[in-house]
């Protein structure tokens, strides 16, 4: 099994429940969701002209539209070779759930890693039961019910107050379930959005996610 990978790197998770956690990010190439404010637009398409070798991928140190097919064995080899110490893996994109992630996650868990997926929830999720699912719903594409029910946390991007009505609709689907963790995240560090998030988190007893990595200038 192989996956189109845009980049792999070790950093500190800057968003949501696992904020502050040393993590190895595996960023997959490909996303059909196309949010206008997306900060990883370079991951949207798997264009042949941008395909690079495995060697070039593992030496890549800038974020751009190049990508490479990497099999699971080489993903594990690279993690070992880089001598990364983090034991938490974040599988992100792009939209990682356009691929069946269960094979990759099974092998990562077998090696002792915990796994987290960051998804828009618009695709079926193929992962292990232990996988932590971070659902980040997008306003123009309502998440699947199965994704809403599977989510361990909902990390909701907020630009204006009206966006919160959309979150209410999502939470309505969860009404008979134990609520998962809810995080509000201001889009693009906008101060108005931040204030709406702070105010709402206090009223609702939700949590704030500020994309810490952007404030401290790490990847
Ligand atoms: S789902 Fe994620 S990767 Fe895809 S366009 Fe939206 S923000 Fe970007």
Automatic annotation (TrEMBL):
Keywords: 4Fe-4S, Iron, Iron-sulfur, Lyase, Magnesium, Metal-binding, Queuosine biosynthesis, S-adenosyl-L-methionine
Free-text remark on how the cofactor is bound: Binds 1 [4Fe-4S] cluster. The cluster is coordinated with 3 cysteines and an exchangeable S-adenosyl-L-methionine.
Pathway recorded for this protein: Purine metabolism; 7-cyano-7-deazaguanine biosynthesis
Binding of substrate, residues: 12-14, 27, 92
InterPro entries per UniProt: 7-CO-7-deazaguanine_synth-like, Aldolase_TIM, rSAM, rSAM_QueE_proteobac, rSAM_sf
E.C. number: 4.3.99.3
Top-rank lineage group of the source organism: Bacteria
Role played: Catalyzes the complex heterocyclic radical-mediated conversion of 6-carboxy-5,6,7,8-tetrahydropterin (CPH4) to 7-carboxy-7-deazaguanine (CDG), a step common to the biosynthetic pathways of all 7-deazapurine-containing compounds.
Subunit structure: Homodimer.
Family: Belongs to the radical SAM superfamily. 7-carboxy-7-deazaguanine synthase family.
UniProt name for this protein: 7-carboxy-7-deazaguanine synthase
Natural source organism: Buchnera aphidicola
Lineage of producing organism: Bacteria, Pseudomonadati, Pseudomonadota, Gammaproteobacteria, Enterobacterales
């Amino acid at each position: 099994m192989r996956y189109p990978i845009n980049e792999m790197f070790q950093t500190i998770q800057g968003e949501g429940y696992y904020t502050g956690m040393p993590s190895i990010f595996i960023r997959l190439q490909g996303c059909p969701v196309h949010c206008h404010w997306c900060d990883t637009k370079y991951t949207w398409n798997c264009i042949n002209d941008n395909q690079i070798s495995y060697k070039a991928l593992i030496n890549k140190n800038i974020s751009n539209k190049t990508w490479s097919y990497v099999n699971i064995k080489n993903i594990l080899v690279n993690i070992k070779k880089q001598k990364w110490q983090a034991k938490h893996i974040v599988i992100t994109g792009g939209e990682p759930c356009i691929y069946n992630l269960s094979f990759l996650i099974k092998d990562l868990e077998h090696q002792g890693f915990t796994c987290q997926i960051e998804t828009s929830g618009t695709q079926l999720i193929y992962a292990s039961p232990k996988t932590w699912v971070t659902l980040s719903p997008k306003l123009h594409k309502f998440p699947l019910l199965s994704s809403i029910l599977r989510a361990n946390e909902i990390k909701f991007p907020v630009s204006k107050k009206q966006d919160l009505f959309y979150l209410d609709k999502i939470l309505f689907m969860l009404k008979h379930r134990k609520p998962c963790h809810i995080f509000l995240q201001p889009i693009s560090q906008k101060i108005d959005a931040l204030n709406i998030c702070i105010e709402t988190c206090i009223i609702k007893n939700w949590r704030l996610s500020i994309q810490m990595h952007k404030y401290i200038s790490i990847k």
